Amino acid sequence: MTLESYNKIIFNIQRIKQFDILLWLDDYSHYSPDKAASLMLIEWDCIKIDKKHLKDEEYLKVLINLFLKRFRYIVVEGIENESQLKKFTQFHVLLQGYYISKPLPISQISTLKYHL
């Protein structure tokens, strides 16, 4: 990406944010530190961390600690059992996965019970 195109992206994000629109980055899945660092420059409100990071718990801890300093919301996807639920609840992030709920039509979302 060129500096000019990056600046254009930043400019457009700032314009969007003027309308109080939340920007969510879905499925963060990069392993390289330079890509994580470049994401920190953009004013995302939420970042959703891809489930493949559940395999490397130490790396996931580093990501969460880094992202907690920058983003309003962090979602860790791929929670598929009680052990993962207990383990990742300690990080004070939002959790998503089949253990919590299968995908629902929008008409049923209000019936979903949340456990904190």
From TrEMBL:
**EAL domain segment(s):** 1-116
Q: Which InterPro entries match?
A: EAL_dom, EAL_sf
Name listed for the protein in its UniProt record: EAL domain-containing protein
Q: What is the lineage of its organism?
A: Bacteria, Pseudomonadati, Pseudomonadota, Gammaproteobacteria, Vibrionales
